[in-house]
Amino acid sequence: MTCVFCLTFQLACCCGTAACSLCCKCCPKIKQSTSTRFMYALYFILVTIICCVMMSTTVANEMKTHIPFYEQMCKGIQAGEMCEKLVGYSAVYKVCFGMSCFFFLFFLFTIKINSSKSCRAYIHNGFWLFKLILLAAMCSGAFFIPDQDTFLNAWRYVGATGGFLFIAIQLILLVEFTHKWNKNWTAGANHKQMWNGLLALVTLILYSIAVAALILMALFYTRSEGCMYNKVLIGVNGGLCLFVSLVAISPCVQNRQPHSGLLQSGVISCYVMYLTFSALSSKPPETILDESNQNITICVPEFSQGLHRDENLVTGLGTTILFGCILYSCLTSTTRASSEALRGIYATPETEVSSCFLPQDFSDAEEHIEKRGGQTVIYDEKKGTVYSYAYFHFVFFLASLYVMMTVTHWFHYESAQIEKFFTGTWSIFWVKMVSCWVCVCLYLWTLIAPLCCPTREFSV
To answer: Of the candidates 396, 397, 407, which has an alpha carbon nearest to the alpha carbon of residue 52?
Structure first.
């Protein structure tokens, strides 16, 4: 009987408005809003994996070797003699075009949905089989766009714009998070003195990590002769971290923003050091001639050269971690608080205190729990939506463009291969380095904006 109930509800999930869940009773409870976001994330992961496969020469060669009648099959589906239309950067552009259109269509469709009981909300939260068919149709249909060369050239610039915008949103939310964190813990210190000690401890740890990272990069990514790029960039980024830290605690900033402190600049310094390390690791290797007239690689750690020998292992592990981080960024930046922060809407000072200091009776949602033979589903949107549907789809639209540009090595697309994902290109290097400087500029602006515009109210 349990299996019959489970099967019935899974069909309702795929073809109706029921929330998706697992059939196993031992699984923890899941909220309807979480279930919906998980399903869209699953579609995103599926298309991303397909893009990685399309960029893999190893997979293409294995398919040629092990699939019978491979050449005849390729000709039958009009994909070229050896399915060359289904591999490479152009194929990834087309598939990501379909995924981007899918999320952009739902972005337009879900604008200004405030109730989960509306017809549009039911479509957003259900009908997963039809959505999968629609996504597959859009990704496939992109291969039949006429004038492919013009499309690819134009779509490349759209992808770059969307990719940069996705990075900018993550940086804005990071800066906003640092200010919120510091204000939250400072408010907590008014209730318990312990939070002052925690604030000092975390700040010390953050700066210790940033300084250690700076020293290690100076040791392993520079040498007495050469490595001028590395020396300049490590010095500049280290100097920027010191500069923003001094600005954060300067008297003029403290007068206008009492909550400004070293915790925020510590988080930013750690992130800047991470981006600097990531950029230096993504830079094409420099080579010089040694005494025996042989090329040797410089400006990279010696142990990293050994790691890159097993390219499949490094690529597989690194790609999994990278796209896991992208997915995490998408899901954590699609909350209602994040969407409101980007529009400049913040909580009132009375609600800034951390939930650690509030009584537990302030639960604001009466949640309807439904048990149906499998995983328990909590319908947490009875009184209204808990996140912005339109903003959720817009972030995934930008993430689709970011994935497209990342997999195809940004502007070095013609020689891109997933097996050489971590060999380094100048495009990836400068994207990461510019992201680092934009992050510093955004944080610096939040510090000096009240000084530049004294008549305007700023709230973070």
So the answer is: 407
CB 425 within 8 A of CB 192: no
CA distance 367 to 381: 8
Tell me the average pLDDT across 229-250: 90
Strand, helix or coil for residue 310: coil
Q: Which two tokens stand for residue 286?
A: 């420099």
pTM of the model: 0.75
Instruction: Answer with the residue of higher pLDDT: 431 or 223.
Output: 431
* Residue 259 tokens, joined: 């909550």
What is the C-alpha to C-alpha distance for residues 225 and 228, in angstroms, rounded to an integer? Answer: 8
Phi, psi at 377, each rounded to 5°:
-110, 130
Is residue 222 within 8 A of residue 235, CB to CB? The reply is no
pLDDT in tens, 359-381: 444 344 445 554 554 556 666 66
Q: How many CA atoms lie within 13 A of 110 on its CB side?
A: 24
User: Contact at 8 Å (CB) between 263 and 202?
Assistant: yes
Question: φ and ψ at 239, to 5 degrees?
Answer: -65, -35
Residues 6+ apart with CB under 8 A from 248: 260, 261, 262, 264, 265, 447
The rounded distance, in Å, linking the Cα atoms of 404 and 381 is 33
Tokens of 20: 């998706």
Residues 6+ apart with CB under 8 A from 451: 252, 253, 256
Cα–Cα separations (whole angstroms), residue 189 to 174, 183, 357: 23, 10, 10
pLDDT in tens, 379-419: 666 777 777 888 889 988 998 998 888 888 887 777 666 66
Q: Cβ(441)–Cβ(80) under 8 Å? A: no
Asked if residue 365 lies in contact with residue 379, where contact means CB atoms within 8 angstroms, the answer is no
